[in-house]
Amino acid sequence: MTTLITPEIPKGTRDFLPKDMVRREFVLEKIKSVFVNFGYDTIETPAIEYAKTIHGNYGENESKLTYTFNDHGGRKLALRYDQTVPFARFVASNYQNLPMPFKRYQISPVWRADKPARGRYREFHQCDIDIIGTDSLMAEGEIARVIVSVFEALGFEDLVFRFNSRRLMNNILSRLRIALDKQLPVIRLLDKLEKIGKGAVGEELRKILPEEKADALLKTVGVTGTNEEKMRFLEEYSPSEIREFIRISEAFEVPTRYLKFDPSLSRGLDYYTGLIFKVSLPDVKLGAVCAGGRYDDLCSTFSREKFSGVGAAFAFDRIMLAMEELDMLKDVRLNSQVLVTYLDEETLPNSLRIVNSLREAQINAEIYFQSDRLSKQLRYAEKKGNSVCYHLWS
Amino acid sequence: MTTLITPEIPKGTRDFLPKDMVRREFVLEKIKSVFVNFGYDTIETPAIEYAKTIHGNYGENESKLTYTFNDHGGRKLALRYDQTVPFARFVASNYQNLPMPFKRYQISPVWRADKPARGRYREFHQCDIDIIGTDSLMAEGEIARVIVSVFEALGFEDLVFRFNSRRLMNNILSRLRIALDKQLPVIRLLDKLEKIGKGAVGEELRKILPEEKADALLKTVGVTGTNEEKMRFLEEYSPSEIREFIRISEAFEVPTRYLKFDPSLSRGLDYYTGLIFKVSLPDVKLGAVCAGGRYDDLCSTFSREKFSGVGAAFAFDRIMLAMEELDMLKDVRLNSQVLVTYLDEETLPNSLRIVNSLREAQINAEIYFQSDRLSKQLRYAEKKGNSVCYHLWS
């Protein structure tokens, strides 16, 4: 007897069975149909890019988490680590053939040599939309509306759209005379507020800022109240972008109750330059299910052309988790509807005629492949999700 | 000025623009809907597998064309080379949770470090269906019907479904007393008939077989006439499987005119054991657009369980090429339908109300993001495929 190869898959990767796929596709189709409804087109970029494309655009940390290998001519390649860098490369390659502003959605797998954990995979799908080539705040408003429509289409009844402005944050940091080289570290600390709490962040802040500045900053960004009250409190730092964004979002019919201006929201990434946001679902404890913001220059490493834009990334795996937890997918069934049984040779031609006509009538139907015991055929029908069994007696 | 990274992609990979994607998705959706209509479910396996999984299942040639790399713990991984080996691994891992017979379709990218050429890529999509867990010829009949339905759904009016039986081929080879160790090389030569012609194959055959055997073989498998005439000519080799397959296919309403019994059809792969087939489109010169056959033991390298089945692989890129060539995709449009223009601040609230209602009515609509010249907005509308422009005068 030859030795068998153990049929195992790498840690952090997954097999999806039909029952998993039908739920994933149900959710993806709903999401896509909203994107399409708003005039977003999709593109595809290769999963393998030149390593220089990938590594030239991430910090050391991300680069370390990239899978790299040589092609057979000795050139270094890398697997897609996220969709943003390939999208920037794509725009730099193709912008002359793209409508501007360019509105695209993209859903594809990415790979990260990360330590697997609950909800953290080495191969997973990202789901992004971006509008590039416009400075107009209309883009932010539309993206907010797309996000609301996505979660509504999926059946969620509530969400919190927390947002802030990097410009406002910069104004606050400047007015508090926080040195430029300390601003990004400070922003990265504020980004941890949700995770580690005000006390811990304050402690860390006091390590890089004089105590009174640290306290003033926390007090300023920690203001509570309604959106209007917070804006008034921050009037001296000119929260005009916040005011304008709320006005435009409302014109896009984003329900005001979803919008929560949060002056402490930071998002650790340094490429954000304008409005930033993070969406969560109050019905589940999961963290952000969508996040994004305005960046000034998407393609800076690839092109001298400037492409400003707004992007949002949906956390597809978390959304799946939330919907499973809230039992929102219990009615999603496998595709097959009718099983026509196989009784014997004599009735087979009739059974085949029936399955042929059902299929032609766009009813998803199958025929059992041999004249097995009826109980076995019924068990098969059930496993395949067929809700009707068509059985002919001779 | 910093040096820019050239925005290029590896040879043999492709960027797909919205106009490409909308055609690809149109075709894929049609194909999928047929699979679903016949009760096939989809699965997903990781793009990265352990290298042993991949290399333990291919010859040296295929293994050389696989992209391999180490994960961060030093284990050897490989990118999916085709869908068959991962499917075999998947079945061996999960068969206890699958309905049997298991009917699945799968459409996903695969990677091959091959020399790129017209129509040959390093990253491309495969599109497979398989029925495993049954010996019944009903499976072959159904797969033939699925194939016909796919090409009909895509709008093709003609196809040639060439088929043969490995059992019949084995009977012929045995009756001609061709030694067992020469049978696979002979089959591989016969597989080249279409490509290099009868003369060249004959010459090669004579190098490994005595001249009279080579000639007898070519005469036997080269028989011409109707399916019935060929079967009668080959009666002594018992073409019962051929006869039975034709009967069952007709019961599945496969039009008889498509079915072409070709006793010389061989398919070079050694894992086929029963019916084999190759589908081509007479309207284009492209080679096979679909091919497959019956195998005895899908998971032999992974499991002692036996899974016999029938599979078919659709050549998605070739099908796209054929449809472009025959101008069958000219009416496929981008998804957006209506552009609402942005005249000025005063009319904007009205424009937004219109775009909001259009979207709510499931009409794919967009609004222009700033008050540009009308000509520019119209150019954008055209580029995005919007067929209607909604313009408000104040």
Helix share of residues of chain A?
40-55%
Major interchain interface with per-chain residue totals:
A-B, 97 and 97 residues
CATH topology of the largest domain in chain A: BirA Bifunctional Protein, domain 2
- Total domain count of chain A: 2
- What proportion of the residues of chain A form beta strands (DSSP E)? 15-25%
- How many H/I helical runs of chain A? 14
The CATH superfamily of the largest domain in chain A turns out to be Bira Bifunctional Protein, Domain 2
Strand order of the largest sheet of chain A: 1-5-6-11-10-9-7-8
Provide mean pLDDT of chain A, rounded.
94
- The best one-word shape of chain A is elongated
Oligomer: homodimer
What top-tier CATH class of the largest domain in chain A fits best? Alpha Beta
Structure notes:
2 copies of one chain form a homodimer. In chain A, the strands form 3 sheets. An 8-stranded mixed beta sheet of chain A has the order 1-5-6-11-10-9-7-8. The first copy, chain A, has a 3-stranded antiparallel beta sheet with strand order 2-4-3. In chain A, strands 13-12-14 form a 3-stranded parallel beta sheet, with helices on one face. Chain A is elongated and about 90 Å long. The first copy, chain A, is α/β, with parallel strands linked by helices. Chain A folds into 2 domains: 18-325, 2-Layer Sandwich (BirA Bifunctional Protein, domain 2), CATH 3.30.930.10; 338-390, Rossmann fold, CATH 3.40.50.800. In chain A, 42% of the residues are buried. The first copy, chain A, has helices at residues 18-37, 51-55, 60-64, 84-94, 138-154, 166-175, 180-190, 193-208, 211-221, 227-233, 240-251, 316-325, 348-360, 374-383; strands at 41-42, 48-50, 68-70, 76-79, 102-111, 123-132, 160-165, 259-261, 272-280, 290-295, 309-314, 338-340, 365-367, 388-390. The longest helix of chain A has 20 residues, at 18-37. Chain A contains 14 helices and 14 strands. In chain A, helix 8 runs antiparallel to helix 9. At the A-B interface, helix 1, strand 1, strand 2, helix 4 and strand 5 of A face helix 1, strand 1, strand 2, helix 4 and strand 5 of B.
